[in-house]
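During the second half of the funding period, the structural biology subgroup turned its attention to how the target accommodates small molecules. The most pressing case was S-adenosylmethionine, which had performed well in the primary screen but for which no bound structure existed. We therefore specified the complex as follows and requested a full 3D prediction, including the ligand pose.
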Amino acid sequence: MGIRTSIDLKLDLSSAFNALVGELSAALSELGMQFEAGVHGRVMEGSTEVGRVIGWQPGEQILLEWHGADWQPAEVATVELRFEPIEGGTRVTLERPEWGSVLGDQGDELAGWFASEVAAPLLRAMAPGRLGDWITDRRARRPSGAQARAFYRDPLYHRPNFKAILQVLGLRHDDYLLEVGCGGGAFLEEALRSGCKAAAIDHSRDMVRVAGELNRAAISQNRLEIREGEADSLPYPDATFTCAVMTGVFGFISNPLKALSEIRRVLAGGGRLVLFTGSKELRGTPAAPEPMASRLHFYEDQELVELARKAGFDDAKVERPDFEQFAREVGIPEEFLGLFKGNAGGQLLIARKQSA
Ligand SMILES: C[S@@+](CC[C@H](N)C(=O)[O-])C[C@H]1O[C@@H](n2cnc3c(N)ncnc32)[C@H](O)[C@@H]1O
């Protein structure tokens, strides 16, 4: 008696294998486990070896010797990840054929384990709340995976916002810029053309990786440093930067006052902040579709100004530029220019920290 679960993917065998290995490594890492892939690979939970690769056939099978219970070292099982061709794709199956005696031989205990550890989390994962959160995280709130990495490396539809910010910011070569939530680093790449120095954080490991790859030259010249970090606890000393930027991030921030206060703290006297956030007119459009739309906070102009003042900024104001010209400049296709027309596309919060 064992456990078997499978999913059918519209991917060929080799793509399914590579995707699963990459995604499983990332997902286990989030859960505090390390999957070292390959012929001599293993699965670690802290310093404990839980599984050891005993069969590795790319596109076909991964076989693990599994030590599910360190208090019963003789209890060794096999866990198989199997890849089989099916019409139009690949079936991926995870199977542990024998359960063994860890839970005793009581069917009730196994039923309880299956219900609470497998079936209930699976049902929750497929229900609207968790699925909506997963999609929102995956695509925008904490982007991860191959599609997100490709998108944020060159986010064409964000470039009009970048242009609007850069126009207001007027970067000089002696500026030291902070970007909070830098995604794949495309804004940084444009900003660094001014000759300035910069630092950036993002809480997505994948985004930090992409942003680093895209801006490799600036990093090696010590003009840029990118870290994994949270907007509400910036890893920099007080009064470090001359200016700060946040674009496409603020609507996801759960403690906006804390985030703005942190930016103010790390700005030097006279330092300026320019923040772009999508306005509520975008809710439900391709710029802010579901399930992201209902997980984003859309602000009134006045709310943004008040938050900035509460955080200690002076001269706070909101501008709503016409993004259409910027959209034309960056090459948004004609049929999508409508998304950028008028002043409903987004808000620029512009604020300054008083000079010391
Ligand atoms: C929609 S993406 C925008 C990325 C980039 N600024 C752009 O415009 O292309 C939002 C980014 O903010 C990051 N982010 C969201 N909340 C964050 C937080 N609390 N701390 C740090 N980064 C955050 C996400 O990981 C993601 O990379």
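Two results from this model are relevant to the next phase. The pocket of S-adenosylmethionine is lined by residues 140-143, 152, 155, 158, 181-183, 186-187, 201-204, 207, 230-231, 247-249, 252-253 (CB under 6 Å). The mean pLDDT is 95.
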